[in-house]
Amino acid sequence: MAAAPVINLSPGLKEILRKYCEDENLLSLACAVLQEEQVVQVLSFSTLSDADVSSIRKKIIAKDDSFKGKEILINTCLKSAVRDANFQADLAQATDKIVAQKDASSNQRAAAVSKMHERIEALKKAMGVKDMRANILPPISVWRKLLVALPTYVDFNTDLRNTDYAGSILPVHADPVGIFLQASDDQLPTVVQQVVPKDIADRRSREMSGTAWAACFIRYSTALLLADIEQGEGAKLSANIDVFTLWSYMMSVNVLAAKYGWSLAYDVDCAFRRLVEARCLEGAVPLREAISDTASFAQITVDKTLYGRHPSHAPAKSGADAKGESATHSKKDSKSGAKRSRANRSSGKLCYEFLATGSCKRPNCHFRHEDAAGTPAEKRPKAGPKKFIPDRLDTRDVWPHVSALVADALARAEEEWQKESSDLTDGTGIFGSLDTNFYAPSSPLLERLARTLDLEVEELLSSETGEALASWLNLSRQQQSTSSAWSDHLPVLSACADRIRIEWARLLEVNPRPAECGSPVRPLLMQAIIAELGNAVGDGCNFDLHFLDLVDKGLPLGTSGEVPRSGVWPAREYDVRDRFFPISKDLWRENYRSTADYETEVQAAISKEIALGRMSVVEPNEIHKIKAITRLGCVPSFDAEGNVKKIRVVDDLTESGCNTLIRSNVSETILLPNISAACRIAVMCKVADVGGADPLYWVESDVKSAFRQLRLSDVDSWFCCNRVGERIVRHLALPFGAVSSPLLFCRLSGLDSIIATVMLCLCSLFHRLVTYIDDRGIPVKLRFALKVALVSVLVDLICGIEPAFEKLFVSQQPHCLGFVLNLVEMTLTLSAEKLQVFTASLGGVSNQGDSVAVKDLEKLVGRLAWVSVPFKKLRPFLMPFYASLHIGKSKSLRSIKVGKALASAATFLRRFFQTEAAIPMHSLLPDMGDMHRTVLVSDACTKKIGGYVLHQFGESGNRILWYQADVTDRELSALLDKLLERENASSAIGSPEMCLLELLALVVGAAQAPRSNLVVAVTDNEACSHVIKSMRSRSTALSKLMQSLMVIRPHLAGRNLTAVHVAGEKNVLADWISRSTASEVRHRMAGVQDCEEVDIRATLHEFNESL
């Protein structure tokens, strides 16, 4: 009998095989075959594929005929062992990572200790001391927190106080409290652990004592000085903080504690240091000035003594005092609870400036003026009465008064508009700002390239192709979408692009070939053009040239490694909402149901992609290369008759785990233009000299199969595999569904749009455009519309990017970023289809008590959030939607009941979208400065409302329109009845309803403004100003009035309605109009030039009808 072979397998591998091969003979044969195949380690065994397992099974059967017919048994045992080995390998790899992370954390700790020691040495040198005791040094965590931002708030009780010790010698939280650094000249800082006996720690009070606060503040001061010290040869403290400022603040807290006790002093200290953090981090004041602000410290002290004391902080009372106080409070509460509540609201907080200086310079200060002695607010000097216009009105004073008030209001409104305005970009990266002309340099070589393109375009315009395209230009937008004019002339356009490309390549001395990886893009030609543009711009610019090298070789998707940064796109911020999904390689997973519903269309789409070289079939001998299997979803689109027009197949790379990998390897994000950017370039083109007074048009273009124009690197393509029927296919082109795909294509489309911008500029055409991933929009005057469209199309074809001619339009009502731009009236609105979708969706949540699916509510909220970007005044009405959606998602509900607030908001929004729902373009661009303004000034008393409107009509000059209405007027009385829901129409208007009258006077004046004007509303009622700015109020009547204004004047839903608050002493003319009789006002205002009365009864009727 032959001796058994010596098996040199590793013990781990033997253990795994023994676990699954219960038959000793099978175990021996499996070990022998693995020994022959030199698979002797667990790691190598875990990499075996299904084909390798089949080969080992055949060799086992060949060695012993008794195992014939037991192929399934052998196969199951070996595959189970391979899976176990795979798990063991992953576990070992994870263990190595944990050890590496632990070592890295230990190294970071040591580096922090070393860095802090350097700071300690610098501080000792600056202060002129030889040694520094360890008991004043802060924990490392506190020092590092202040090193990042010096004004950061530090909680003494949790970060610095040495409490909450466990029974052992170690604290529960080892880093922040009980760890000190022992620092001396002859050694590095060493960790010294303070030990507090458990019995002493248990007896400590939970409240901060004076001694504990002083110790914490000293360590906090040391941490500030260490974080602020300037290191180097001339070590010194910077100007941010100093010891004397800290000592002064410490004395203020001690004085406060001596008067009121440490409980209140600690509360004031915490509140004040939080205020310091907020003011400094917002950039308002330096740290030294914020800590030295005695007025704020005094204000917080008063607030805490009057309102901020918790019942547990109040001193204990006993006996008759407590009993008497209880009886007194009970008596007051039973008789005048509502009166006390109103008194508290009217009193408000104390004035900071009055507390600090003893006087207040604000003319209309709404804070209480009390000194340190507690002088009540009722005894302070009251403001004088308004200075009304005398009986003998000098009409010459009206225009100077109005002009001064209007100038002040416009200046303040312009300042507010400037604050709201943000930098607008064109979608080509961080250099594509609309405030600069960065892409319009010139060089002799670029001019020769543009001249070549210009000659070819002029020749096309004079040919039969130009005549056919000119006829296409006269079609409506709907007719252009069904026309085949561009597709029919594609061979002529392609031949023209080839000639231009060859000539450009000759001038640039570059090869115009397509990408080596199979993409039709011409990376070398684009790289040469962009490089020449960079030379013309000069130093300090980055045009992402390295990306074109990646396009040539194959793009990294972010699954196998990091996507190289461009420097042209903003940095990506980490989102905590990103979920983690493990990589899935399961071949048995089914696609989504939509794929099965449209199986024929999906199979046809996959076959077409394979024929175009964008996908390939995975052969059986390549299955082991698959890194991930992705489920497919199908998104169909239908024609007017309900038939499937086309489908889009999307890969769910999130569930397969690929997007989890990509997010960790992508460090940039896209910077897309908004609708304000599109409106701005439209206005810029309208006022430009190019094209003269011709009507304004818009060129819309798109890229055909945008993401599929780019090819993936080979290693990343194995992460993008699909199972379709019996076939397994992998993507060779950029897939839909990867989080990096939009960024990668934006980097290409941005470069393509830059080339188009340069060519338009050098061809003496308006060259500003917006690029939204694969969509491009270019405003143009009519005479150059076809030429601009040809330049845009030819640049795409030259660069190897195929345009989508079915999405090419030249019209005066373009669809841009989902909105419709009316270039005739210069307004922004929604398409009829979207308006129908909005009204239908809002109808499902307009009835209180109905159930709505959380999934449908989420979709509706997304649409409303999108439309509220330009329609700014609609944003406050979305709050009930967000609240309901948050409740439904937080509780994982499938449906949720419609509440009163949600139903009310949905009803209003539905009514709004049933109107024209159009706003002027300039409502998004109030800072451009060339639009006319309307300033209205209003006021009201208990019997009348009134005011005046000043229109700016450019060359036709300005004029004043004044208005007045009595509360007994039929229309106004009916409107008040509806708003106040009162039954007795003759009831008088009291002081609580004055705010409603003030707001009514304001909105009636706003309704008189022309649609093309921006409106600035001036009022001396601060509550009205707040309602106009925030579009919401706790009062039902005020909210209904604002909703009514949005319904009858939907064009005010943008940023073109602004409120400005002025002191009552300045609002004398509107106040006089609202308090005088109509005949008296007519008599006096008749002598004022360019002044007339406007009848507001029709406007009041509109408000009545809307309610």
Automatic annotation (TrEMBL):
Residue ranges of the region described as Disordered: 310-342, 371-391
SUPFAM superfamilies cross-referenced by the UniProt entry: DNA/RNA polymerases
Domain C3H1-type: 345-372
Keywords in alphabetical order: Metal-binding, Zinc, Zinc-finger
Mapped zinc finger ranges (C3H1-type): 345-372
Source organism (scientific name): Perkinsus chesapeaki
One term of GO molecular function: zinc ion binding
Keyword Signal on entry: no
Protein's name in the database: C3H1-type domain-containing protein
Basic and acidic residues bias (residue ranges): 320-336, 371-381
